[in-house]
Structure formats: C-alpha cells, structure tokens
Amino acid sequence: MNLKRSARLVAPLFFMILFFSCASTPSSSAGSGKDNASSKQESEGEEEIVTNIPLPNNSYRSYFYSIDQKILGYVENGSPDSLQQASSLIYKNSKGTLSDKEIVLMNICQQIMQTAWPSRKVTWEVPSSQTDNPYSRILQSAANGIYDSTTERTDFLTTLLPSMVIFSKADVQAYYAKAKRDLNTALAMRPDSVLANYLMSVLEINKGNTETAATYLTKAEKGASSCVELKAVEAAIQYNMGNYARALSQGELLLASSPQNSLLLKICATAALKTGNVDKAENYVLRVLQNEPENTNFTLYRADILMSKNDYIKASSLLDAVAKTDSTSKLYLIERTRLLREWNKNNSAASQTIAQALQKYPEDVDVLLCAASVASESSSPIAGKSAMELANKVLAKLPDNIQAQQIIISEHYKAGRYQEAYQMCSKLIKEDNVSKETFFAYIDICIALKNNSQAMDTASKLYSAYPEDEDVLRSYINMLVATGKREQAQKLINTKLETSSGKMKSFLYYQRSLLATGEDEIFADLRASLTANPRNKDALYRFYRIYYNKQDWRRAQYYLKQVVAIDPRNSEFLAQNAELDALLGR
Questions:
Q1: What pLDDT, in 10s, does the model give residues 83-101?
Q2: Cα distance between the two ends of the chain
Q3: CA-CA distance, 159 to 87, in Å (whole number)?
C-alpha cells in the first residue's frame, strides 16, 4: 500500500510569526545582544498571571492633568473610533491653539492608529511634537522591537504602551511575561479598553492559548466590532482551532475591502496551504513576499509550493538561500527533508535531517508528522522511534489528525494487521474532505482481506469521478489486476499505453506482467517497464523474486541491489540482501 503523505506542513499560526515577523532579528538600534539576553533572563519566572493588582493612586494622570478626562478616556479605550473622537475633541477644546501636552496626546493617537489599526487612515492633522515625553519614547522603543522596562508605570498609558512591541517585526518572545504582567495591570484600570484587550488577545495567540485569546477578543469586539484587525484575529483563531476552510473564507472576505492587508494575506496563504489549494496559496504567498521579501517563513512556504509543482531546482535555490541565515528552524528542516526525499531520493539524509528537527522540536506536531512519514516510508525508526510511535504521539495531542491516522493505517497494513487497518480506514473515509490517498489505502486493504466487492465498488466510483487522474487510474488498474478482472484490466492497460509516457507507462507494463502467463511475456513486460523507468522498484523486485525462486542467486542479487539503492534503509530489503550474501558465500 503506497500511502502518500501530505505536503502541507505549515506551522501553527502563532500570531507574531504569521502576522508581524519577517523572520529577521531586531536592527542594531534595537539594543545589544546583552540587553536581549538579560530581558529573556528577566522574563523567566514571570509567567504567572498577576492577581490582586494594586491600582495606582490619583496621581497616575498627572502628566495630562490639563487634558479633559473624557478625552483621556477615549485615548485609553484605544479603538479607531475613540482615537478619532479624542483628536476631534482636542481640536475643539483647544480653540485653535494646541498646548504641548495636547500635541503629545495627538501624536500618541496617531502612532497607536498607525501601528495597531493600519487599515484605518489618520484623518486628522497631527502637528509634530518637539516635547520630550515618556510616551513617545516608549512607542519608539516598541517600534524598534524593545520592551520599555525603564519608564515608571505612572498611569494607564505608560503601563499599556510598552506592549505595543508585539506589533513590531522583531522576535519579541522574551518580552511576553512582562507584557502580560503590564497588560493585566492596565486591564485592572480599564477592563473595557479595546486596545488592551486586543493586545492581550494577540499575546495569548503568540503563546498558543487560543481559547484565552478568543475571550479577550470578544471583549475587544464589544467596543470595535467592525475593525478589520480584530476580524483578522478571529480568522487566526479559527486557523489555530483547525478550521482552515473557515479561516480562508473569512480572510478572503476581509481582503475584498483591504486587499493589501498583510495580516489577512498571511492568513489566506497559510490556510490555503493547509486546505491543499496550491494555486491559491501561491498567489497569497507571492503577495506576502512582495511586501516582505526577507520573510523566511514565507520563502519556505514558497519552496513547499514549488516542490508541489515538481520545480525542485527553484525550491532548492530558495532553501539554500534560507540556510545562510536560518538552517535550524522547524520549517527549514521539514522542507529540506522533503527535498531530500522527493528530489534527491536520499532517504538516509532525509532521516538524519528530520532527526535533527525531532531533537530540537520533540513535541512539535508538524515535526512528529514529518518524522513519522519518513520512518514509515523507509521502514526505519527516526531517533529511535518507529513510525507507529511517532504517529501515536501526534494522536495523543490531536486525536482527529488525519495524516497521523493514515500513517498508522499504513503501518498496520505493512505488518499484515489488515483487520486493524480496515477498522481505522473504514471510519476515516467517512470524514469530510478526506484525500483520495485514504481511499486508495482502503481499496488496498479490502483487496488484502479479499473484500473484492468493496474494493471494486470504491475504486469504480473514484475512477468514474476522476477518470483523468493518474493516481486514481493506478489504483483502479491495481484493483482490476488484484481481483482477477483480467480482460477488463488488459483492455484498459493496452488503451492507456498508447498515450502514456514515463513512469505511468512503466507502471502499466508492470501491471501487464502480472497478467501474463508465459515467462517470455512476463520478462518482456518487465524489461519494457524498466526501460520506461529504470527506478521502478516493483519491477526490479519482481525480477529479484523470479530469479530467487529459480535459485539463481547472482541474478537475484543484481536486481535486489538496485532495489536497496532506491530504498537503502528498508530493513526487509537489507535482510534479503544479507541472505543472498550468505548464499553466495560472501
């Protein structure tokens, strides 16, 4: 049973990585490595949620003591509409002459709008501020990827604004604990703040806490239900919950009104990859890379798409470019593994590469799935774990994961546990949006169990629905041959041979050799199969079996060694080759 693996190995949609990161490190203006290291060190041990937060005394509004409290309330709410209302009231109350503090506050409104709500334009005039103040300094640090820890938390804004670093393009994971602490304090002051709840929802997605993120998002939407950015977070939550089709449709609906929104483009790109819509994914990935050409994650997604289209040379070039700056990321190691398997046909190197990923990311589902797939294909463990163990580890985390179930079904089949494979596969084919590969597996299992009527019924329906699909044709012909439908199989094979080329022709000749009755016919078809594709493992292996049964050990080994060269880690082939060595006295 040849159970194809899914090529859609896209990382979970942690908000920072998907929406804001261009997979680059902060610029030199973001501080020294020592500062980053110390920030990370300080963040350790601060993960607990702060409770019983003391409220600041009345002096927390002291810097803006001359500002109308209603205006300040609008700014602290932080929604696009409230920021616009705040600016309008400042102009109205100033009667044409703005104070230094009013100018500072209007600049804060502008920076919040441009950073947190980029889909909304600043429609009011903003004079440049020449006044040195803690708020502008905090926002500048956040833009540079630095969490301001030095400014005293004297009011709501000095408490909230450092967390705007979450929107920077730098890797800010080291600041999550500090941001959560300060955001909890800010929310204790103003539980209804749209901006504070929005920031907290983004932070929780970054940390992988999808349900908690949804709670904060609901609170934010109460004060700004029509914001594109909040709806984008909702789409990201749908993605993280595994509702990829819904995330894609929701993202595309929003893109209709915000076609250049980077957040939405990234949701649509990754959701399309997850749903297997390669052409749609390619369109969105290219649009993301136009805006962020240095984004290594999306460069790797581009490589994945190119491999799906068999353009391995371009994919290899992209991987080589990424390797110069980031050769240990999860996505890079997964895509490099795929290239080694599919293009280089080097299962040994692929196993070593994914073993490296497994060591670095031992609990990551995508890595576990890739490792399980490699282990299953090569019939060899990865980092000491079998394909079955790796796939079961995925199911312990995600009980409904289809790829893990497919791998386990394949392992049961290869081990001759056909009934176990049948029970799992029978349930799986009833799920929505199940791949054709799952039906191919079901057909093979039914054939092994002599359930020929079920195999015939399933294969016939598939072939009727997809008559031009080569994989479906392979499964259908294999079923006809295996169930003894000789005349029907012979007629179809001969018809398709006229128009087929390459690997398909090799497959057809091999299948026809199974129908032949005379040795000359068998040999002629097997030779024709290998002429069309010298790496046809089935044809080579059948030659080995024929000569083995004739006790012609030397010729048997000639063909078996070619099988081993194609699949050098397959323990069954290696054992058979060792047996021939012994028989030949080597």
A1: 999 999 998 888 778 899 9
A2: 33
A3: 21
Q: Which residues pair with 385 in a beta bridge?
A: 382
Joined tokens for residue 194:
């749209």
Q: How many residues does the chain have?
A: 586
Q: How confident is the model at residue 1 (pLDDT cuts 50, 70, 90)?
A: low
Structure-token match 């859609």, residue found = 8
**Helix or strand or coil: residue 171?**
coil
What residue spans of 117-243 are helical by DSSP H? 134-143, 156-160, 176-189, 194-206, 210-221, 228-240
The pTM of the full predicted model, rounded to 2 decimals, is 0.67
Q: Residue 169: what are its φ and ψ, rounded to 5°?
A: -90, 5
Tokens of 85: 């209302």
What are the DSSP calls for 311-377, one per residue?
Answer: -HHHHHHHHHHHHTT-SSSHHHHHHHHHHHHHTS--HHHHHHHHHHHHHHSTT-HHHHHHHHHHHHH
- Tokens standing for 228? 């594109």
Residue-wise DSSP of 217-270: HHHHHTT-TT-HHHHHHHHHHHHHTT-HHHHHHHHHHHHTT-TT-HHHHHHHHH
Number of Cβ within a 10 Å radius of residue 461: 11
Beta-carbon contacts of 154 under 8 Å, excluding residues fewer than 6 positions away, are 56, 59, 60, 62, 63, 134
Within 10 angstroms of residue 323's Cβ, the number of other Cβ atoms is: 14
Amino acid at 256: A
For 353-512, strand residue ranges (E) read none
